[in-house]
Design a protein that fits this description.
By secondary structure, this protein is an alpha+beta fold. The protein has six domains: 1-49, no CATH class; 52-171, Agglutinin, subunit A, CATH 2.90.10.10; 177-310, Bulb-type lectin domain (Agglutinin, subunit A, Orthogonal Prism), CATH 2.90.10.10; 351-439, Hepatocyte Growth Factor, CATH 3.50.4.10; 515-603, Phosphorylase Kinase, domain 1; 610-811, Orthogonal Bundle (Transferase(Phosphotransferase), domain 1), CATH 1.10.510. 25% of the residues lie in helices and 26% in strands. A six-stranded mixed beta sheet has the order 35-39-40-38-37-36, with helices on both faces. Strands 3, 4, 5, 6 and 7 form a five-stranded antiparallel beta sheet that branches.
Length: 822
């Protein structure tokens, strides 16, 4: 029965009606009669094609993510492919309106936007596969009795057998959100996203701890610490109990939260009929959101921490958090922020704390500041302040002393700084550091600042007394009018006299937080490059200089030229670079952006570029190294064109942009001309119309003003491959002895390949410096691949993925020794 239902459903999925119209064939009355019977017989099954479930054997394809998905019967929730990047998708559940994610299957492993699919197999498992067939996620179920996957009105995705029994449910595997009536148990955990608009997990989590208490935990790269409920208080003082070992919590339909550890609360808008969700936000705070149906927006109806500065890791190591209307981070005297765009990276000292330079130190008093961590040195609460200070001054590992009424604590590390009336900070700094007392901290908005809209309710927690309410509203109205007038004045000044890039910085700042980038100051890079004195290379997008960072890393610093004048182009390249990671691509460590200066910081690749080895008499590459360069370059381009989550065209592949590392492995550099490749759209050609490659490596479509596709890289790669084999510049001119006319080396090589057989042309094409010490099979393969890639007709050029497969076959079982001669 199930197989027949699937058959009928598949007939409709293939849109039989369109096929009949297309072929203009008459439909017999017998066929219509049979079809009518099938429709009548399986009416109930076909009615589910709304659809509200996925039957065994059926598949959802990522290409149809906008039209093919599963919805709950009341249309509150949707299940399907959710776009998380330009070409990245995750299998997810979300509120249909407004579109709000509540669950993700492959949170850490998104799939490609082409060729990916999710299927409910005959073995009873729902499997998500990427474009190359690798399994990105599965339900790990083995019951062959499973008949379908269904999305319930609660937002729970379930796998049911033919009897309707639930064999698997998404409610057992929450990500960062808990829905009403979703049980939170000892095995459950909420993990926050890394940033707003990103979906990979970060450092904050909610779980039942080993003592049965529900806790928020920060598990960062340097420290791991509980921050809610207050770790300074006992379980009982926090209103919890550790004696109930059931470990179960739930948010019900009314907005009540009940937990086995005694945590019970009600949302401000308590009552039935409201869509709610409990989410552990990327700033580390746990909040309950309620949907305002009149405005269609989410509003906070409860939150765990009213003071965000109590969240661990907010301002990073050495940083101090100050909270007024929003959290602000500061560095103590003698310290500077590591990354102004990401305060969670903390502050660093401007002096040497190790004591290696025998610099005399002192302790500066900063009242009402505390660092509540557990990095104490020889902690003894009973020692006096003088003894405690002496211990710190004599210990090179000590950074500061915290003095409280309960004792004195020398600190080897400073985390989670915040104002505290009960504590005094004595900060260890050089004696020659001038510090004005009392110390005033300058606060900067934390990058993880979070200002959700809170539901207002008739609660004495907000206002007391009708008269006070009236005056507050009156004052608020007056200030609102004044504020609106001020906003209009500032906006007029903004647009008439100044073009600010602040909005762009804020918009793109979060995108850099979770990436491998670090934002450098211009002064740092000027110092690292010795005032840009040693030039490594020059290209169409700028000049690259050699530099050494403060941590000893050697880097290449590219000063961007006129190619990226606009902010939009600059940030576009930043977004692309931040998502690219491949062993055969040059790694980018950071960037610098200012009004006058735009620079990129790359890893330093020690063996220079390929052209220095191919066309120089001083250096030489053997056959194995040449084949490895060709193979590695092909893999990198295949990654850019098909595999990475951004479709990228390099547009300037040439030997100068292929660097060789210490093992002579290739790394493609210079993404200054790389642009996001929008497949299937006509805008690609317009987007890239201003970009030009290098003469001799440019595909013919540049000159013909044809739309630019990834095949321009294939053409350039073909030229490079032929140069790797021949050891000469194919753009050089040579004399044709037969015609006594000049022709390019490329034209000469093409004429040789076309006019002679393999045994003849291979000797004439190969670099004579190789002295025939090559693998014949590999040499023939490379020449054929290069010739095929360099075709004028781009439709005849192969895809880079096909090139990789061809070279992989040639690489196996061949060595120079086996075919040392031709």
């Amino acid at each position: 029965m199930d197989k027949l239902v699937v058959l009928v459903r598949s007939l409709f999925n293939h849109e039989m009606k369109e096929h009949f119209i297309l072929f203009n064939q008459p439909i017999s009355s017998n066929f219509l009669y049979v079809l009518f019977l099938l429709l009548a017989l399986f009416h109930n099954s076909l009615a589910s094609l709304d659809p509200h479930y996925l039957a065994k054997g059926e598949t959802l394809f990522v290409e149809n993510h906008d039209t093919k998905f599963i919805t709950s019967p009341d249309d509150t929730f949707t299940f399907g492919f959710y776009k998380t990047g330009n070409n990245a998708f995750s299998l997810a559940i979300w509120f249909t309106k407004p579109k709000t994610l509540v669950w993700m299957a492959n949170r850490e492993k998104p799939v490609n936007g082409v060729g990916s699919k999710v299927s409910l197999g005959s073995n009873g498992a729902m499997v998500l596969t990427d474009f190359d067939g690798t399994v990105s996620w599965d339900t790990n179920t083995t019951s062959t009795d499973i008949a379908r996957a269904e999305l319930l009105n609660s937002g729970n995705l379930v796998l049911k057998n033919s009897r309707g029994d639930v064999k698997w449910q998404s409610f057992d595997y929450p990500t960062d959100t808990l829905l009403p009536n979703q049980n939170f148990t000892r095995n459950s955990r909420l993990v926050s996203s890394s940033r707003n608009g990103s979906y990979d997990p970060r450092y904050f989590s909610l779980k039942f701890d080993s003592d049965n208490v529900l806790r928020l935990i920060y598990d960062g790269p340097e420290i791991s610490s509980i921050y809610w409920p207050n770790p300074e208080d006992t379980v009982r003082d926090n209103g919890r109990t550790s004696y109930n070992s059931t470990r179960n919590a739930v948010l019900d339909d009314r907005g009540w939260f009940l937990s086995s550890d005694g945590l019970n609360f009600k949302t401000i808008d308590m009552g039935f009929g409201i869509n709610r969700r409990m989410t552990l936000d990327y700033d580390g705070n746990l909040r309950v959101y309620s949907l305002n149906n009149s405005t269609g927006s989410w509003q906070v109806s409860w939150q765990a921490l009213t003071n965000p500065c109590l969240i661990r890791g907010l301002c990073g190591e050495n940083g101090i958090c100050v909270f007024s209307s929003q959290p602000k981070c500061s560095c103590p005297p003698g310290y500077v922020v590591n990354d102004p765009s990401d305060w969670s990276r903390g502050c660093k000292p401007t002096f040497d704390l190790s004591g290696q330079n025998n610099q005399p130190m002192k302790l500066v008093k900063i009242p009402e500041i505390d660092y509540f961590g557990y990095f104490d040195i020889n902690h003894t609460a009973s020692i006096s302040l003088d003894v405690c200070q002496k211990i710190c001054l004599e210990n090179s590992n000590c950074k500061a002393v915290i003095f409280r009424d309960v004792g004195c604590y020398p600190k080897s590390a400073l985390f989670n700084g915040l104002p505290a009336g009960y504590a005094t900070l004595f900060l260890k700094v050089p004696q020659n550091l001038s510090v004005s007392e009392p110390v005033k901290l300058e606060g900067h908005p934390a990058t993880c600042e979070f200002n959700p809209r809170v539901v207002e309710g008739n609660s004495t927690l907000h206002l007391r007394g009708t008269r006070r309410v009236i005056w507050i509203y009156l004052y608020s109205f007056c200030f609102a009018l004044l504020g609106i007038e001020l906003v209009f004045v500032l906006l007029g000044w903004f647009f008439l006299f100044r073009k600010s890039n602040v909005s762009d910085t804020i918009e793109h700042g979060y995108e850099m937080i979770a990436s491998q980038f670090r934002r450098f100051s211009y002064e740092e890079l000027r110092k690292a490059t010795n005032n840009f004195s040693e030039e490594l290379g020059k290209g169409g997008s700028g000049v690259v200089y050699k530099g050494v960072l403060s941590d000893g890393r050697m880097v290449g610093v590219k000063r961007l030229g006129d190619v990226l004048q606009g902010d939009e182009e600059f940030w576009s390249e930043m977004n692309i670079i931040g998502k690219i990671n491949h062993m055969n691509l040059v790694r980018t460590w950071g960037y610098c952006s200012g009004k006058k200066h735009r620079l990129l910081v790359y890893e330093y690749v020690e063996n220079s570029s390929l052209d220095k080895h191919l066309f120089s008499k001083k250096r030489f590459l053997g056959w194995e190294q040449r084949f490895a360069v060709a193979f590695g370059t092909a893999k990198a381009l295949a990654y850019l064109h098909d595999e990475c989550l951004e479709w990228v065209i390099h547009c300037d592949i040439k030997p100068e942009n292929i660097l060789l590392d210490g093992d002579l492995q290739p790394k493609i550099a210079d993404f200054g001309l790389a642009k996001l490749y929008q497949r299937g759209g006509g805008g690609s050609g317009l987007e890239l119309s201003r970009i030009r490659g290098t003469k001799g490596y440019m595909a013919p479509e540049w000159a013909l003003n044809q739309p630019i596709t990834a095949k321009v890289d294939v053409y350039s790669y073909g030229i490079v491959i032929l140069e790797i084999v021949s050891g000469i510049r194919l753009s050089n001119w040579t004399m044709n002895r037969r015609t006594n006319q000049l022709e390019t080396e490329l034209a000469k090589l093409t004429r040789i390949i076309k006019g002679q057989g393999e045994e003849s042309w291979i000797e004439r094409v190969l670099d004579p410096r190789l002295k025939r010490k090559v693998s014949k099979k590999q040499a023939i393969t490379l020449i054929k691949v290069g010739y095929s890639c360099a075709q004028e007709d781009r439709n005849k050029r192969p895809r880079m993925a096909s090139v990789v497969e061809t070279l992989l076959q040639a690489a196996s079982g061949n060595s120079v020794r086996e075919c040392s001669g031709l």
